[in-house]
Amino acid sequence: EVTGSTIPSQDGSKGKWALFVLHDITRQKRLELVRKEFVANVSHELRTPLSVIKGYVETLVDGHHDMELSDRSRFLATIQRHTERLNSLLEDLLTLSRLESINPGLQRESTSLRSLVGSIVDDYRSRPAAQNHVIDSEIDPAIEPLLIDPLKLTQVFENLLDNALKYTPPGSTITIAARRRTEEVEIRVKDTGPGIPQADLPHIFERFYRVEKGRSREKGGTGLGLSIVKHIIQLHGGRVRAESQLNEGMTFVLTIPSSKTSN
Ligand code: ADP
């Protein structure tokens, strides 16, 4: 189709040039579409918490002076929850835009995966939100130090652990396991929760994609956590995929090049 619309010319190079322009326009159009969809999604995500906050503040300001103190507190708690939601959304949007910028600020240093995961797991085990879950780590001690950005990798594990805690019932086990493979390290973050249907798997790394919209929002999810994970792993020259069957738990498989091969 594109070749058919190439501007005819006696000179081969001009023909190629015209072809390039057409390709570029198609790409521009696609990018424009993605950008429009993104703006529409962000606006939609902002609208709900803002209108809730607006409504509750108006009710409080319009002074139903006979309002019970308990109702007042309930209203304020709702306003607080939605303000926090706006805040998380903004934080995640800023993180994503930094990761997508020309200089995403990757600060690689030689890092022991075992110590990094060990300290993250210790931190999570002491959190109130994780008291009803079992968190295990099985990191092969033979894995050599990796040339990674420890703060960004910490964010990856935090996003995956937060999800595992959010979407699995009490009593579930979350395991972070890592083993050496040829020229790369494979890390698996696995939970024993409900998992997701196969049909949703290809989409969950897309921005704002949620399997159960209501449930995710209610649990404070922005719909951006896995996009951030994907970006960080790709910046390290790695890959990420998810494996799941409904009611069979969820596994995220991260592959990171070992130091010698990473750039
Ligand atoms: P959210 O902020 O909604 O959690 P994410 O990008 O982190 O956004 O995740 C996208 C969706 O993937 C979630 O809304 C949820 O439906 C699904 N998901 C992610 N992790 C898990 C998990 N461990 N178990 C089941 N579903 C999950």
TrEMBL record:
GO biological process annotation, one example: cellular response to phosphate starvation
The EC number(s) this enzyme carries: 2.7.13.3
Domain called Histidine kinase: residue spans: 41-260
Subcellular location: Cell membrane
EC primary class: transferase
GO molecular function per UniProt: ATP binding; phosphoprotein phosphatase activity; phosphorelay sensor kinase activity
Superkingdom as given in the UniProt entry: Bacteria
Keywords associated with the record: ATP-binding, Cell membrane, Kinase, Membrane, Nucleotide-binding, Phosphoprotein, Transferase, Two-component regulatory system
This protein's record includes keyword 4Fe-4S: no
Coiled-coil regions listed: none
Reactions listed under catalytic activity: ATP + protein L-histidine = ADP + protein N-phospho-L-histidine
One GO cellular component term: plasma membrane
Protein name in UniProt: histidine kinase
Taxonomic lineage: Bacteria, Pseudomonadati, Verrucomicrobiota, Opitutia, Opitutales
